Amino acid sequence: MESIIVLGGAGYIGSQACKALHTAGIQPVTYDNLSLGHESFVKYGPLIKGDVLDTALLSETIRRYDASCVMHFAALASVADSVTDPASYYQNNVAGTLSVLEAMRATDCRSLVFSSTCAIYGQPEVVPIDESCAKNPINPYGRSKLICEQMMNDYSAAYGIRSIALRYFNAVGADFDGEIGEFREHETHIIPRAMMYLLGHLDEFVIHGSDFPTPDGTAIRDYIHVKDLAEAHISAARLLAGGHAGGAYNLGQGTGYSVLQVLSAIERITGRKMPAITGGRRQGDPAILIAQPALAREVLGFAPRYSSLQDIISSAWTWHQKAHPQKSLSAREAGAR
Ligand SMILES: NC(=O)c1ccc[n+]([C@@H]2O[C@H](COP(=O)([O-])OP(=O)(O)OC[C@H]3O[C@@H](n4cnc5c(N)ncnc54)[C@H](O)[C@@H]3O)[C@@H](O)[C@H]2O)c1
Ligand SMILES: O=c1ccn([C@@H]2O[C@H](COP(=O)(O)OP(=O)(O)O[C@H]3O[C@H](CO)[C@H](O)[C@H](O)[C@H]3O)[C@@H](O)[C@H]2O)c(=O)[nH]1
C-alpha cells in the first residue's frame, strides 16, 4: 500500500488530510510531536511521535514506510503569538522545514506538499489576490512561511525535491461524519470561538474591529472548508507523482464574508442568538483577504464543494456539540439562550 508521511497529522487540517488519504486508499503515516495536536485525531493510520526538528527520525520514518510523498502541516500558526514570540516561529517553522528538506534529501522521497498561507501576502494592494501579488508579510508567522517557500524553491533547483506550496486562506468547518474537527487549547479562530461561546465555554464573543474600510465595517475573509483543502492535497501529491515541477497555489473560494455576515449565518443555521461585543482591531489583521483561485482550479482541478457558509457552519456546529456534549447541556446555556 502506498504511504504518505503527514507531518502535523494530529492537528486540525492534517487530520482531515489523513482521512482523505485513507479514503483514497493511501496509508497516512502521522508524524507529530503532539504539542498542539490530539492523539484522538489520529484515526486513519499509524502515529509516530516525533519532532520535525529531529532530522534523523524523519529520514528513518520516510525510509521505513517507503513514502511516496511528505505532506508538511507541522507549524505554529498564530499571528498574534508570532509577534510576541518570533523565536519559536523561526525555530519551529523555518528550522523545522529545513530539517524536513534535509531529511528528504537523505532519502529517495522527492515530493513535498507544504501548508502555506495567505499571510505571506501581508496587506494586499489588490483583491482578489493572485499568486503573483507582492509578498510583504506583516508578521513573523507570514515571514516564516515565505522563507520556507523560498527554501523549497532552492532545494528543488539544487536537489530535485519538487514541492507544491498550498496557500490556504481561512480554513474552517469540520468533518461531516463528526469524527474530527477544530479544537485548540488557546483558540483564536472565529468559527470555533463562536461555537464555544454558543456552548457556554466562553463568556463573550468579541468582534475584532468595526472600523475597517468594508461595507459593514468588519473584516472580510475567504473561508474554505477543510475537506476541500484536504482533497487539494491529494491532487497536489498526484501531480508531483506525475512529474509536476512544483509551484504555489492559492486555496480559497474567491468570495469573502464579513465577520457580521458570518455571525448572522451562525444565528440562522444554529437557531441560537449570537450577541457579540464590538472590540478593537487585533494587531496585524488586514481588512480584506480574498483569493483569486483560478490557477489552483486550472492546475490542481481545485473546485470547492463543501465551502458554503451552510456546510461550514453546520459541520462545525455538529462537531462542537459532539465534542463537548456534557457542557453543551449546561444550565447556563439552556437558561440564557
Ligand atoms: N488554520 C488555518 O486557517 C490555516 C491557514 C493557513 C495556513 N495554515 C497552516 O496549516 C498548517 C496546519 O494548521 P492547523 O490549523 O491544522 O494547525 P494545528 O495546530 O491544528 O496543527 C499543527 C500540528 O502540527 C504539530 N506540530 C507543530 N510543531 C511541530 C513540530 N515541531 N514537530 C512535530 N509536530 C509539530 C502540532 O502538534 C499539531 O498537531 C500549519 O502549517 C498552518 O500554518 C493554517
Ligand atoms: O473571536 C474572534 C475571532 C476572529 N474574529 C475575526 O474573524 C476574522 C477571521 O479571524 P480568524 O482568527 O478566524 O482567522 P485569521 O484571518 O486571523 O487567520 C487566518 O489567516 C491568517 C493569515 O492572515 C493565518 O494564515 C491564520 O493561520 C489563519 O487562520 C478576522 O477578521 C478576525 O478579526 C473576530 O472578530 N472575533
Automatic annotation (TrEMBL):
Signal peptide: none annotated. It catalyses: UDP-alpha-D-glucose = UDP-alpha-D-galactose. It is an enzyme of class 5 (isomerase). SUPFAM superfamilies: NAD(P)-binding Rossmann-fold domains. Residues 4-252 form the NAD-dependent epimerase/dehydratase domain. Its EC number is 5.1.3.2. Pathway: Carbohydrate metabolism; galactose metabolism. One of its GO terms (biological process) is galactose catabolic process via UDP-galactose, Leloir pathway. InterPro entries: Epimerase_deHydtase, NAD(P)-bd_dom_sf, UDP_G4E. Keywords: Carbohydrate metabolism, Isomerase, NAD. One of its GO terms (molecular function) is UDP-glucose 4-epimerase activity. Its cofactor is NAD(+). PANTHER family: UDP-ARABINOSE 4-EPIMERASE 1, UDP-GLUCOSE 4-EPIMERASE. Belongs to the NAD(P)-dependent epimerase/dehydratase family. This is UDP-glucose 4-epimerase. It comes from Asticcacaulis taihuensis.
